[in-house]
Design a protein that fits this description.
Elements lengths: L21 H10 L3 E7 L1 H7 L2 H9 L2 E5 L14 E5 L3 H13 L4 E3 L2 H7 L20 E3 L3 E4 L4 H9 L6 E5 L11 E4 L12 E5 L6 E8 L2 E8 L6 H6 L3 E4 L16 H4 L4 H15 L3 E8 L6 E9 L9 H23 L1
Parallel strand pairs: 1-2, 1-3, 3-4, 5-14
Antiparallel strand pairs: 6-9, 7-8, 7-9, 8-12, 10-11, 10-13, 13-14
Helix pairs in contact: 3-10
Bound molecules: adenosine-5'-triphosphate, Myo inositol 3,4,5,6 tetrakisphosphate and magnesium ion (2 copies).
C-alpha cells in the first residue's frame, strides 16, 4: 500500500477541531492509500486482461495499473506495490529477478524461476503423481511421457522400451509463448515419430470423452470451466491409422461447453475437495499464484483425473467474473502487506 501525499498532518477535523479520536484518523489514512500495480504484458495479454470493467472496478478501490517501460531501468520506474508480468524471453526474467532482489518489498507475480519450471513440459508435471490426495474424493495422475531430444533410431526404440502406448501426443518441450510451442501432433505409430521435430515430449493420449476442465487459480480462488477437447480414439482407429497428424488448439477456444449438451458422466466437474487439495499442493510446490491446470477425466471412470498441462497467467479474460476475483486478490495482497508492516512496527 502506498501512502498518498495528501495525508492529514494531525487529528484535525474539517472544522478545525482537534480531536483525540485516532480511529477516524486511521480511517482517513486507510482511504487515501493506493495500490500501484506495474504491469509488463504482451499486447495480446494486455488487451484480454486489462479490460475496461477491471480498470473501473480497480479505480473505485484505489488500485491503479501503470505500464512498465521495458526500455527503461525498472528500478527507476514506480514505485510499485505489485509487478504483474508475462513477457517472452530469458532477458526479461533476469530483469525481474534483479529487481526483486533489490526491492523485496514489491510483490512480483510471479517469480521467474517458478514460471520457468512450467515452461518446460517435463518439469511442469514432475512430482504431481506423488501428491497425496487421499480422502479428496478422487485420484490425480499424469500421462506416461518421455522426452525426445534428438531424432535417432535409438530414440524411437526408447519409446517402445519406455512402454508408451500409441497414440502419443507430441508436444514441444519448451513453452516459450510462440505459436510453435503450442503446435501439437498425434502420432499413431513408431515409424512416424521420425517426422517430428525434437526437442519434444511424447505423452500417452488418454481417452476422456472430448471434454477438458480448465482449473483457473488466482491466489486462493479456484474457478473451473469446461472446454471442448479431442474425441476418444477407438481401438479400431489405433489399429488402422498410421502417421502423425497436427491438431488445432481445440481447448483454448473462449467458448465454455454447455453442460446440457453432454453426457453427465463426462461433464460432471471434478470433486471440489480434489481440486482444492491439488491446487493447494501445486500453489506451494510451484510457488505460483496465477496459473491454470488442464485436467481430463479418464474415460469410463468417475474419479480418475489426469493433469496434462499447467499454464502461467493464462487467458483470465475467459474466466467468469475474473474482474472481481482479481480486485479481491489485489486487495488481499495489500492487506497482507499492511498486516506485515503493523507486525514489524
Ligand atoms: N495426454 C493427452 N491426452 C488426451 N488429450 C490431450 C493430451 N494432451 C493434450 N491433449 C489435448 O490437446 C490439448 C492441448 O494440449 P496442451 O494443453 O498440453 O497444450 P498447450 O499448447 O500447452 O495448450 P494451452 O493452450 O492450454 O497452453 C489439450 O487441451 C487436450 O485437448
Ligand atoms: O495470452 P497468452 O499469449 O499468454 O496465451 C496463453 C493463453 O491465453 P489466451 O487465451 O489469453 O491466449 C492460455 O489459454 P487458456 O489456457 O486460458 O485457454 C494458454 O493457452 C497459455 O498457454 C497461453 O500462454 P503461452 O503458453 O502462450 O505463454
Ligand atoms: Mg493446455
Ligand atoms: Mg499450455
Amino acid at each position: 500500500m502506498r501512502d498518498n501525499n495528501m495525508m492529514p498532518k494531525g487529528n484535525e477535523t474539517d472544522d478545525g477541531e482537534v480531536g483525540l479520536n485516532t480511529t477516524s484518523f486511521e480511517q482517513v489514512q486507510q482511504q487515501q492509500k493506493k495500490l500501484v500495480i506495474g504491469y509488463a504484458l504482451t499486447s495480446k495479454k494486455k488487451m484480454s486482461f486489462l479490460q475496461p470493467k477491471l480498470e473501473v472496478l480497480a479505480r473505485k478501490k484505489g488500485i491503479s495499473f501503470v505500464s512498465i517501460d521495458q526500455d527503461k531501468p525498472l528500478s527507476e520506474q514506480g514505485p510499485f506495490d505489485v509487478v504483474l508480468h508475462k513477457l517472452l524471453g530469458n532477458e526479461w526474467h533476469d530483469v525481474i529477478e534483479d529487481y526483486q532482489q533489490k526491492h523485496p518489498e514489491v510483490t512480483v507475480l510471479d517469480p521467474p524461476c517458478a514460471i520457468q519450471r512450467i515452461y518446460n513440459r517435463q518439469s511442469m508435471l514432475q512430482g504431481i503423481a506423488d501428491i497425496n490426495l487421499a480422502d479428496c474424493d478422487g485420484m490425480i495422475c499424469v500421462p506416461k511421457q518421455m522426452v525426445v531430444l534428438k531424432n535417432t533410431t535409438s530414440s524411437t526404440n526408447e519409446v517402445a522400451e519406455a512402454g508408451l502406448n500409441f497414440p502419443l501426443v507430441a508436444k514441444p518441450l519448451l513453452v516459450d509463448g510462440t505459436a510453435k510451442s503450442h503446435q501439437l501432433f498425434l502420432a499413431y505409430d513408431r515409424l512416424s515419430l521420425a517426422e517430428l521435430e525434437p526437442p519434444l515430449v511424447l505423452q500417452e493420449f488418454v481417452n476422456h470423452g472430448g471434454v477438458l476442465f480448465k482449473v483457473f487459480v488466482v491466489g486462493d480462488v479456484i474457478k473451473v470451466v469446461r472446454r471442448f477437447s479431442l474425441p476418444n480414439v477407438s481401438n479400431c482407429e489405433k489399429e488402422k491409422v498410421a502417421g502423425v497428424f497436427q491438431f488445432p488448439r481445440v481447448s483454448s477456444s473462449a467458448a465454455s461447453v454447455d453442460k446440457t449438451d453432454l453426457d453427465p458422466r463426462v461433464a460432471e466437474l471434478p470433486p471440489k475437495p480434489l481440486l482444492e487439495g491439488l491446487v493447494r499442493e501445486l500453489r506451494n510446490r510451484l510457488g505460483l499464484r496465477l496459473f491454470n491446470i488442464d485436467m481430463i477425466r479418464e474415460h469410463g471412470s468417475r474419479d480418475v483425473f489426469y493433469v496434462i498441462d499447467i499454464n502461467y497467467f493464462p487467458g483470465y479474460g475467459k474466466m467468469p467474473d475474473y474482474e472481481q476475483v482479481f480486485i479481491d486478490f489485489f486487495l488481499s495482497l495489500a492487506q497482507a502487506k499492511h498486516n506485515k508492516i503493523q507486525c514489524v512496527s
